[in-house]
Amino acid sequence: MFKRSLLPLSLCALTLTLAACAPAQTGPLPDPAGFRPAPGDVAQNVEGVGDLGRWMITRDLQNATWLGEKVGGRTLREPINVVMIDAVAKTPEAATRRMLDAMTQAGYGPKNMHSDGYSGYLNGELRGQYPQGKGLAFSDGPWYAANNHGRVFGPFAVGESTVFIASFSRENFRWLPKPGHPYSSFQVAREDLGQQMGAKTVFKPQGYLNLDSALDTPTETTGDHDGRALLLVAQE
């Protein structure tokens, strides 16, 4: 009796969680080719990178706001807080393989039950997310517990290098009153990713890039984000 009761409970939990974590689709999506960020949404002339969009972009071409979750009653803006540069790989395809391998080596392999369809903006180009696939994000743990997770955008060609930009955050898990993933921290996830990448992969931390992207207004916040992106550079 006990074993048979587990299946419907698990299916019910799974259905509720999917409904909570996936953005609703209503009507046709806008064409990404028409995306034009507001001037204040782009950090200009970032050293070694160029003009970098400050925020993760949703599939409907809006600045990402954690699927409407509020922090202290304020809208939570999701910043780009990691930049990866690979001047070693000979092609963007090779650089992409190295980035994907590095994420797995760092313990951040693709995991399911996350929202998807995000993009990042660099030097006039909007590129979609890695990992690719329904409900996937890079994460260091399962969806039903606190975890560090994120999406990587690119590849972007910058001079002789390939650049990826990313947004990483730490989330908790909530069953009640509505299943979901409330925000915990941007800095904790960023720093953990840097430590794991530096210890286990060819991408090594090389300081920070100031994007001046910390928000603290009566209506909007970026939580504990300090306005900077961690710089990870491939060493071999």
TrEMBL record:
Keyword annotations of the record: Signal
Domain of life: Bacteria
Signal peptide: 1-24
UniProt protein name: Uncharacterized protein
